[in-house]
Design brief:
- Helix content is 30%, strand content 21%.
- It is an alpha+beta fold and 97 residues long.
- A three-stranded antiparallel sheet has the order 4-3-5, covered by helices on one side. A two-stranded antiparallel sheet has the order 1-2.
- Helix 1 packs antiparallel against helix 3.
- The termini are far apart.
């Protein structure tokens, strides 16, 4: 019997709402609007709610908020109210890379 070669597992790819680049899901930060309407960063990638993906850079966050794509991706009126919390999360991630 001959062995079949193992198939390579495909990595999921998502698009950043800031710069628009396609990257691996693990390289992006997921932002979630929970069913209660709260907007929080999702470190696990498994929280329930409407999600948007963002590069872990403050430049992408500013682009996403300024253009309105973050608010649109989360189906919310105003995403600027959470910008400070997201900036802190992004600073943490930038510091670890």
């Amino acid at each position: 019997m001959s062995q079949q070669p193992k198939k390579e597992k495909k990595l999921p790819v998502r698009r950043c709402v800031g710069c628009g680049e396609h990257k691996e899901k693990t390289a992006l930060l997921r932002i979630v609007r929970t069913p209660e309407g709260e907007i929080v960063p999702d470190r696990t990638g498994k929280k329930n709610g409407r999600g948007a993906y963002l590069c872990p850079s403050s430049a992408c966050l500013k682009k996403a908020v300024k253009s309105g794509r973050l608010a649109s991706g989360l189906n919310t009126e105003n995403a600027q109210s959470v910008m400070l919390a997201l900036e802190k999360e992004i600073e943490k991630r930038e510091g670890t890379e």
